[in-house]
């Protein structure tokens, strides 16, 4: 929605009242408000280029650059817009425009990501969700869409933001419906595997169902995956929860045939996923100073890879435990390290450890979440 303009009357209301009226009421009040014909972002683009082409790089140009940023034009896009226009408007004019644009977009890429997200959505992001901040880890935003009949709210999560475990209580009916509008996220009910949400997904949550953040090690895995995706990589998360993963027989037939004789989920994961992956990241809770039983069994069943032309070169360990201290994760890493030593082209690239966590979701308040995100981005 275009903002009501009063600059004309404030600056020229006494000296040139008709010009002020045309500026505030017609140009901004009518022309800029015809968003059904041309959106605010596109109007900003046209205006910035038109002013630059005339060499009008003054405070009005700064105002329209700021408006363009507010309307969703990113730092990368304004750089490309001015570069393209330079060939038609003139190189010196582009230099002058760039000097001012650098100041307007001086806060880096942080706002660009938010602007890109807003352009993907039909509803506004809203204001910082300060009233409910105690129920979140990280920054969220809230935009009330309807408060009559049925409450409808748009909640936006910054990267790394998580909602705490919670239950919607009701004597009859009640519950919650989640609609994923833009970006990507995760939903999990207690005792069930996490589910990735993408635009268009709908989740019906009955009253009394405890839901949201997921296990601590899975939260680290999500952060690592998000960072890797931001770096441009394709990521697939595979949960071992509920999988049919049987123990290795030790028959060594796989060294001859290249495949395990047991046909279960472990065989599929090894042959279709692990063999072709460039990076493997194992996320596990630490039990008795070692990795989980499911993870150890999967590693045993990955024996067919020993004689195969495997693709992975980096292996990461993402782990959580109730205890703190390096000796906790070091023992688990030693177990994984023994497996990695059998694959000479691979190495242990790093360990992300969240210690001192017992309840679900507690890792969200520690440094491990940021470390996992940064590790993924470093790939």
Q: Please, could you describe this protein's structure?
A:
- The protein has 379 residues and is of the alpha+beta class.
- It folds into three domains: 38-120, AhpD-like (Up-down Bundle), CATH 1.20.1290; 127-205, Jelly Rolls; 217-377, 3-Layer(aba) Sandwich (Rossmann fold).
- It is 39% helix and 15% strand.
- The protein contains 13 helices and twelve strands.
- The protein has helices at 7-12, 17-31, 40-53, 59-70, 75-89, 91-104, 110-120, 216-230, 254-257, 265-273, 293-301, 326-340, 368-377; strands spanning 127-128, 136-137, 140-146, 152-157, 162-163, 176-179, 185-187, 195-197, 202-205, 279-285, 314-320, 347-354.
- The strands form five sheets. A three-stranded antiparallel beta sheet has the order 1-3-4, with no helix packed on it. Strands 10-11-12 form a three-stranded parallel beta sheet, with helices on both faces.
- A hairpin with a 7-residue loop joins strand 7 and strand 8.
- Helix 3 packs parallel to helix 5.
- The two termini are 40 Å apart.
- The model has no long low-confidence stretch (mean pLDDT 84).
What descriptive keywords fit this protein?
alpha+beta, Jelly Rolls, Rossmann fold, 13 helices, 12 strands, 379 residues, three-stranded antiparallel sheet
